[in-house]
Design a protein that fits this description.
This protein is α/β, with parallel strands linked by helices. It has helices spanning 19-27, 47-57, 71-81, 100-111, 141-152, 174-181, 192-203, 231-249, 255-274, 306-318, 362-374, 389-399, 411-414; strands at residues 6-12, 34-41, 61-66, 86-89, 95-96, 115-124, 127-131, 137-140, 170-173, 206-218, 298-302, 322-327, 335-336, 339-342, 354-357. The chain has 3 domains: 6-223, Alpha-Beta Complex (Spore Coat Polysaccharide Biosynthesis Protein SpsA, Chain A); 231-283 and 389-397, no CATH class; 298-381, Rossmann fold, CATH 3.40.50. It has 13 helices and 15 strands. The strands form 2 sheets. Strands 1, 2, 3, 4, 5, 6, 7, 8, 9 and 10 form a 10-stranded mixed sheet that branches. It is globular, with a radius of gyration of 22 Å. Residues 7-180 form the Glycosyltransferase 2-like domain.
Length: 415
């Protein structure tokens, strides 16, 4: 009998600063019947040596050294050598609670779950926020199809998932995951987690969701890509993701529900990656998603996360807005162009026309907005997103996505 009950797979690339903490948090688990598979995805730093050094000290650790192929290829490589019946993924710059594996395993076995989901912690610049699912409980196959999947990608609020895309706060059955993971196109370099999670969910017959937070997700401002060098390539890859999801969910969701889910998901990804102003075949002006905000408006950008950074970077090239200030409650040293992140208290009502809250999560948007109102910012000076589905659908078609969400240009054209 194989004593290994869980295979923990860690894809690794360029994270030597964080990797030891990640590995230590796993080998110190209260649950000991696991193997740890460290996949060095051609990392150019000291990560390969760190992996090998740990493997010499702990027989439960396997190390794979491979040419760089991206996150998805590393996850596939790890799964190929995994020996346990359950699979957990941990990103190499994150870390886990001591009872991470113990809790996941007990939840999975007790409920004979194909998929086990938990809460997590989000760490940014030393501050930790607890994130918990809104729909804890056990779901059978009928309930997964009737209540979970129709809201998984878009839960009715722009743009919030009914289930998180992340693979790292979940426990998978190896046999089912093998059917899913190796069918995901390696060219899907954005939204890999969504391609895996939602496809896997569609095949699951028993699901358990727990609010217990066990995983520490490190949100790093230095890991965010701050500009789009090739919009056509980005659209091509996003089209691959949406097409993959359409194929995998078409037999479960009705066409209208699935189209709505994917329209909003694609729109949200386009917003974040484009810095708000969506590029349409080199047309000017680009699509401006902010209601009532016009070109040349004096803007304060709230949030130094991915979306905020993209807004700043895009505006450096387009000069569409006049960005007068960049603020965040998580104030830290970060600069794009001449703009540096400043504390929220630095905002004055007379300094700007509109304030853009750079998040597509409605719950987060509401929380930030309530704080801004308390700080004296008027409601009508806080920008809102355009979220009419008809307008979004027309935009997507105008950009060149077909009815299957594939982008008009093939890879040869894009390159």
């Amino acid at each position: 009998m194989n004593p290994t009950k869980i295979s923990v797979i860690v894809p690794i690339y360029g994270i030597e600063k964080y990797l030891p903490k990640c590995i230590e948090s796993i080998i110190e688990q209260s649950f000991q019947e696991f193997e740890l598979i460290l996949v060095d995805d051609g990392s150019p730093d000291n990560c390969p040596k760190i992996c090998d050094d740990y493997a010499k000290k702990d027989s439960r650790i396997k190390v794979l050294h491979k040419e760089n192929g991206g996150l998805l290829s590393a996850r596939k490589a790890g799964l190929k050598v995994a020996s346990a019946n359950y699979i957990a993924y941990v990103d190499g710059d994150d870390w886990v609670d001591n009872y991470y594996l113990d809790t996941l395993y007990k939840l999975a076995v007790t409920n004979d779950a194909d998929l086990t989901v938990t809460g997590h912690f989000r760490e940014f610049n030393g501050k930790i926020e607890t994130m918990k699912p809104n729909n804890p409980g056990f779901y059978n196959e009928a309930e997964i199809k009737s209540s979970i999947l129709p809201n998984a990608i878009f839960n009715g609020e722009f743009c919030e998932h009914g289930m998180t895309t992340y693979v790292w706060n979940k426990l998978f059955k190896k046999e089912l995951l093998e059917d899913i993971l190796f069918d995901v196109n390696n060219d899907i370099l954005m939204g890999e987690d969504a391609a895996i999670t939602y496809s896997y969910l569609a095949k699951s017959k028993r699901l358990v969701i727990s609010k217990i937070p066990l995983y520490y997700y490190r949100q790093r401002h230095d890991s965010i890509v701050k500009s789009i060098e090739n919009p056509e390539m980005e659209y091509y890859r996003l089209g691959l993701l949406m097409n993959h999801l359409k194929q995998k969910l078409a037999n479960i969701l009705d066409e209208d529900t699935l189209t709505t889910q994917l329209n909003y998901y694609l729109y949200s990804q386009l917003l974040v990656r484009s810095g708000g102003l969506i590029h349409i075949n080199n047309e000017q002006p680009r699509f401006n998603p902010f209601t009532n905000v016009s070109k040349g408006s004096k803007i304060v950008v709230y949030s130094s996360g991915s979306f905020g950074q993209h807004i700043l970077s895009t505006n450096l090239k387009t000069n569409y807005f006049k960005i007068v200030k960049w603020v965040d409650v998580d104030f830290h040293d970060l600069k794009i162009g001449n703009a540096m992140v400043q504390p929220i208290s630095s905002v004055n009502e007379d300094d700007f026309d509109y304030l853009i809250i750079a998040t597509i999560n409605p719950s987060t948007h509401r929380l930030i907005k309530s704080e801004l109102l308390l700080m004296g910012i008027h409601d009508d000076h806080i920008a809102e997103f355009k979220t009419d589905e008809k307008e979004i659908s027309q935009l997507i078609k105008k950009m060149g996505f077909d009815e299957n969400f594939l982008y008009k240009q093939n890879i040869e054209h894009v390159n």
